[in-house]
Structures are given as structure tokens and as C-alpha cells.
């Protein structure tokens, strides 16, 4: 069974508790359960991790090499700041789909820049929690083309 890591960054543990107008009303456990259910229908085993710490996210990306076939990543605000996350993704050579609940391109200018996008397979933004499921579909299609474990 294809193993996929769903990785969430800073403050995403607060999902569903504040700013529902921007991020929706589903909680992070809801999102993770949706991913597990959808992943199962695609023949994927989903592992989920959230951290507010950049180094923990980097360690998880490094550890994914050899144990996961791909990563769904919402790096939160680190998206717009972290060369270190970009380097980590580039170093593991795993397909990464970047996800954002909100449409970062329709928000403040500082959210338009992504350090993840240049090293990602692609980016999905603006579809709320559904974006994570679309990301799993994208990874499934990509890996099904024979480019992954
Ligand atoms: O739209 C997204 O998914 C973001 O990655 C979310 C980040 C934001 O900094 C990015 O620009 C776009 C913020 C995550 C914070 O999530 C919260 C959720 C509920 C309440 C407070 C924060």
C-alpha cells in the first residue's frame, strides 16, 4: 500500500476554532480523518503530523525519504518564509503537493510568495479542506504513472 505523509505546519492545530470565514469550520482532526478515508479509497496509507516548529517539519521531511512515497504539505506561514523547508524538500526528492485552505494569491501580497512552490509537484489553494483530498488525487495520479513507490 502506498504510504503518504500529510504534514501541517504552524497554527493549523487551531483550525475550526477561529477565523472560520478564512479557513472554514473543520478541525485538524476532521481534515486528517478525511485524508485517511480518501487515502484508503486510493489504496494509500496516510500518516499525519502537525507541528508549530520548523525543525520538526524539516526532520519529518527528511524521515519521509524511504518511508513515504509522497507528501501533502500545508506549511502554513512558513510557506512564505522558509528557505530551510524548501531545501529539505529539494533534498529528499519526493513528490510534494503544496496545499493551502485559503487562496493565498487572493490575499495579502506577502502570502503570494511561496518558497515551497518551486520544489513542489504542484500547488492547490483556495478549496478549503477539499484541497487535501485533491492533493491525494494528484499524488495518486503522479505515482500511478510509475514515478514512485
Ligand atoms: O491557507 C492556508 O492554508 C495557509 O497555509 C494558512 C496559514 C497562513 O499563514 C498561510 O498564508 C495560508 C495560517 C494557518 C493558521 O491557521 C489558523 C486556523 C484557524 C485559526 C487561526 C489560524
Automatic annotation (TrEMBL):
The coiled-coil segments of this chain are none
Query: What InterPro entries does UniProt report for this protein, alphabetically?
Result: DHquinase_II, DHquinase_II_CS, DHquinase_II_sf
Superkingdom: Bacteria
Task: List the Gene3D superfamilies hit by this protein, alphabetically.
Answer: Dehydroquinase, class II (3.40.50.9100)
Q: In which pathway does it act?
A: Metabolic intermediate biosynthesis; chorismate biosynthesis; chorismate from D-erythrose 4-phosphate and phosphoenolpyruvate: step 3/7
- Keywords, A to Z? Amino-acid biosynthesis, Aromatic amino acid biosynthesis, Lyase
**Entry keyword Amino-acid biosynthesis:** yes
Which residues are marked as site: Transition state stabilizer? 18
Q: Does the keyword section mention Membrane?
A: no
How it assembles, according to the record, is: Homododecamer.
Q: Which PANTHER family match?
A: CATABOLIC 3-DEHYDROQUINASE (PTHR21272:SF3)
Q: What does this protein do?
A: Catalyzes a trans-dehydration via an enolate intermediate.
**Record protein name field:** 3-dehydroquinate dehydratase
> What is the species of this protein?
Litoreibacter albidus
Underlying gene:
aroQ
Amino acid at each position: 500500500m502506498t504510504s503518504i505523509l500529510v504534514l501541517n505546519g504552524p497554527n493549523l492545530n487551531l483550525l475550526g476554532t477561529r477565523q472560520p470565514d478564512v479557513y472554514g469550520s473543520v478541525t485538524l482532526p476532521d481534515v486528517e480523518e478525511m485524508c485517511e478515508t480518501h487515502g484508503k479509497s486510493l489504496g494509500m496509507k496516510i500518516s499525519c503530523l502537525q507541528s508549530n516548529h520548523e525543525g520538526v517539519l524539516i526532520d519529518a521531511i527528511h524521515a519521509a525519504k524511504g518511508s513515504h512515497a509522497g507528501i501533502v504539505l500545508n506549511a502554513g506561514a512558513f510557506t512564505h518564509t522558509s528557505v530551510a523547508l524548501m531545501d529539505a524538500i529539494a533534498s529528499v526528492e519526493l513528490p510534494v503537493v503544496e496545499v493551502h485552505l485559503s487562496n493565498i494569491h487572493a490575499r495579502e501580497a506577502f502570502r503570494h510568495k511561496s518558497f515551497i512552490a518551486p520544489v513542489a509537484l504542484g500547488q492547490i489553494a483556495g478549496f478549503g479542506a477539499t484541497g487535501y483530498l485533491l492533493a491525494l488525487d494528484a499524488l495518486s495520479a503522479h505515482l500511478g504513472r510509475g514515478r514512485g513507490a
